[in-house]
Amino acid sequence: MEWRAEGILLSVRKHGENAAIIETLTAEQGRHAGLVHGGASRRFTAALQPGNQLLLAWRGRMAENLGTYTTAELVRSRAAMALADREALAILDSTRALLTTLLPERAAMPDLYAGTLALLDALGEPDARRLAYARWEVMLLSELGLALDLNRCAVTGSREGLAWVSPKSGRAVTAETGADYADRLLPLPAFLTASKVAPDRAALADALTMTGYFLETWAIQNDLDRPLPPARERLHALLRRR
Q1: Are 129 and 122 in contact (CB under 8 A)?
Q2: How far apart are CA 166 and CA 173, in angstroms?
Q3: pLDDT, tens digit, for every residue of 131-189?
Q4: Using CA atoms, how far apart are residues 163 and 150, in angstroms rounded to an integer?
Q5: What percent of the chain has pLDDT over 90?
Q6: Residue 162 β-bridge partners
Q7: Residue 97 phi, psi dihedral angles, 5° rounding
Q8: In which element (H, E) is residue 33 found?
Q9: Rounded-to-10 torsion of CA 94, 207, 121, 144
Q10: Burial level of 27, CB count in 10 A (0-12/13-18/19+)?
Q11: Any idea what the Cα angle at residue 143 is, between residues 124 and 32, rounded to 5°?
Q12: Of 156, 178, 179, whose CA–CA distance to 165 is shortest?
């Protein structure tokens, strides 16, 4: 059994004296682990940085085996860009943590892979990465089977004045319709429904309050020991600071 594809490096951990076990995300193989012989050596230092885009070749005796990455070559580096910016690094860490915590292993997710690439490509520009990350969490929920409807009001059908999301249905509600129930609804920042609106940190924090509720709901429903990984909580805390 073998395959070859481009993928995103999600995590690296040392194995034995000189090898490493890596987890990657590819379009057709999904979240997929494998052994890299010599992966802990200097030869792989530049390539095996989380967030990097790699050319991969995997081989195993059977599909369910851990198997070996016989190729893990750097296609595009993003590690240096993230390390130079605290917010960018926090977004990268949260992205990787959510993928490794919530995704099933070896399930094809081409749309999520493409969306993750787009997010990583936007890390260097604050407005673009904030918008991309909020939309990415909405996409992640959809891929997990918990799609939100943020395009029209659940009560009136209006596409204007959307300000809230119902925690029960995951559907948007207008400010007027939800006025009497605001304490029971989740915030829906304008940048998620309007074009050409650049989110600041506070707006992204509000968006993550909303998506975080549904991520926790999904995790609890699927019996995960910890609903949200610490890296995601650290990102939310960073954004809430003024």
Answers
A1: yes
A2: 7
A3: 999 999 999 999 999 999 999 999 999 999 999 999 999 999 999 988 888 899 999 99
A4: 10
A5: 81
A6: 174
A7: -65, -45
A8: strand 30-36
A9: 70
A10: middle
A11: 75
A12: 178
- Looking only at Cα atoms, what is the longest distance across the chain? 63
Spatial distance between the Cα atoms of 196 and 144, rounded to a whole number of angstroms: 28
Please report the domains of the chain, with CATH numbers, ordered by start residue. Answer: 2-77 (2.40.50.140), 81-240 (1.20.1440.120)
Q: Fill in the amino acid letter for 178.
A: G
Q: Is the pLDDT of residue 226 over 80?
A: no
Distance (Å, whole) CA 10 – CA 100: 7
Residues 6+ apart with CB under 8 A from 149: 169, 170, 171, 172
3-state secondary structure of 183: helix
pTM value > 0.90: yes
For the chain, helix (H) and strand (E) counts, in that order, are: 6, 9
Residue 162: both structure tokens together: 């959307």
Helices (H), the chain: 79-83, 86-102, 110-121, 126-143, 201-221, 230-240
What is the chain's mean pLDDT, rounded? 93
Q: Give me the amino acid identity at 143.
A: E
End-to-end CA distance of the chain: 51
